[in-house]
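Please, is this right?
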Amino acid sequence: MAKKKNKKKKDNIVTEILIFIVNLIVYTGVFLLVNAMFDSFVIDHNHIFIYSAIAVILISLLNKTVKPVLVKLTIPLTAITLGLFYFVINMFILKIVEWVMLGKIKFESLPILFFISIVFSILNFIANDIIVKPVEKKIKKIS
């Protein structure tokens, strides 16, 4: 009985690792796509994939920790602006990532960063529905 539980835990860990890798690859691709779309969004070209992956991990961590607090604190402002302030929160998250990455990722213009946050959110939403969710379902079905 204990062996079955240990095997199930190992299977769950492997499943979660695979899902993490899929998310990392897809969202890093989205990050690079947004980088290609905007000239004022610069990633150090020496290690562009590594810096993009690190940025995606940081964004994910901030989205799970800081963003829910910011969203709850700014509900009235988000309601007054008909949801547009949500993208300002995304801008703030991206600026934190820029600061943490010590210049390896730069957003040269705040007005453009607003549009970058909108495009990044939309592309993440599309990638999540088209790629991530179906792959997660297949991974969970297999394991």
Remarks:
- Helices lie at 2-37, 48-73, 75-80, 85-100, 110-142.
- The chain is about 80% helix and 5% strand.
- The two ends are 19 Å apart (CA to CA).
- Strands lie at 41-43, 105-107.
